[in-house]
Amino acid sequence: MIMQHALFGLIRNSLILGCLLLAAFAVNVHANQQANQQANQQADQQVGQKVGQQVGQQVGQQVGQQVGQQVGQQNMLVLGDSISAAYGMSLQQGWVAQLSDELREQYPALNIVNASISGETTAGGLRRLPALLAEHNPSVVIIELGANDGLRGYPLQTLRKNLTALTVMAQNNGAKVILVPMEIPPNYGSRYTAGFRDSFREVAKETNSVLAPFLLDGVATNPALMQDDGLHPTVEAQPLMLANILPTVTATLADQ
Prior knowledge:
By secondary structure, the protein is of the alpha/beta class. The chain is built from 7 helices and 5 strands, in the order αβαβαβααβαβα. The protein has a 5-stranded parallel beta sheet with strand order 2-1-3-4-5, sandwiched between helices. Helix 2 (95-103) crosses helix 7, helix 3 packs parallel to helix 5 (156-172) and helix 5 packs parallel to helix 6. Mean pLDDT is 84; it is low at 1-8, 17-29 and 63-70.
């Protein structure tokens, strides 16, 4: 009987000890899990911080480059008609695109915006110019308009008034203006054609803007360099047109 009580007591004590060991083990496992979770959280935080720093640096560099480009960028606006809109060819073949290519090395921050439209008149350009100035804020504006006014026989007084308004509007926006003179066929009469030609010089003088050479000099009188309509220059004529205006453009840029 005594032996049974002793045996029962030993078994009971063993069970109690086992329970205590299991509880201690569970506590140890829980503590290890918490420690591992904390370690993982710290590791995740460190990784997240590193990744965040790297991403932040990359984004910061990209934004900085974009802002720097925008701050250093200089816009030139070409407001013209079909002569500048590369009528009958792709835009990349026109003299404006060739001007951009020519100036890219010397003026890498210069962006040339070609806002020319075939058939445009001085009145049409005057309607569009405010929005173009607000959008692009150009430092130089090349105005190549008036030919369609002349071909339609518009009054010379209206032509001069619109050219003056275009020039002054661009100047008031802080831009230097290059006025590109045009000419019309002599069948409109000597008085009208002479007055038309003189209009550009008079406006340039009155507004203190830059008067470019005749863009089609050496082109308009050469049938081989004109399209079948006799009004628009060919692809082959574009480099000659660029050569006519390039010295004026580079001189204007250098004077800024």
